[in-house]
Amino acid sequence: MRHGVLILPEHRWSRAREVWAKAEALGYRHAWTYDHLMWRWLSDKPWFPAVPTLTAAATVTSRIRLGTLIASPNFRHPVDFSKELMALDDISGGRVICGVGSGADGFDTRIRGDRLLLPGERAARFAEFVELTDQLLRNRVTTYHGDWYTADGVCLEPGFVQSPRITLAVAGAGPKGMGLAAQHADIWVTTGAPDNDGERYDRAVPLLKDHLAVLDDACAAAGRDPRSLRRLLIAGVSAGGVLESAETYRDAAGLFEEIGFTDLVVPWPRPEFPYQGREEVLEEFAATALQGAR
Description:
Layout: E1 2-6, H1 13-26, E2 30-33, H2 50-59, E3 65-68, H3 78-92, E4 96-100, H4 107-110, H5 119-138, E5 141-145, E6 150-155, E7 167-171, H6 175-184, E8 187-190, H7 201-221, E9 230-234, H8 246-259, E10 263-267, H9 279-289
């Protein structure tokens, strides 16, 4: 199993750089940050944008993969975003993961005064967002005309370090999102069931197994070997209690790997809600479970 951490972009770089460097030093394979203009629980607190944060993180690390978790069409356009990712991929030496999701109605939409979309509109927009992003990440020149997005002879030079495309991770708990992941993604991303916030990780396993079965069906419908699609779980949302101790961390990782997850991401512990916890748990887990990744 590949292990990763989610680091909120909440600290000035003089402090944040130490966290990103420590994540690599502990042996984590990938590190992510939320891509929001504002976030629901910290809407009045310090919050920095994702791409500059990841760019800075690339300069203080050399091995760990760096990703958005997740970028959404709520304020991203595939053309602009792909240009930024090209620069980030170059600066990082090919370590970028482009994580995308449909985006729920929230601060990213409302603070800009954007029209709130109906569920069907949001799904249609996201389908085009993923399709166009995939094309832009693969091709030097892209032309695309859809209902939601247009790209007219967009040139991405000098291109990406990663070939044939930077790693693409698609989040989606429903059949449509899983279908998009099966068609386009290298990694499928889930937090579990959004209506089960805080449920203990072992009690979340049956539902997660059901989701993995639906994902296998989506791969079959797309004519894809399910084993070629990595499955990433973000713990701490619907799968709670993972970071209570190093023992629960190891137990949860074992359970998730047993049912078919290839990647597990945990939030970097904070001194208060949300993601309250102790960094010592990460350190103890890393000392026993991540030594081979260093």
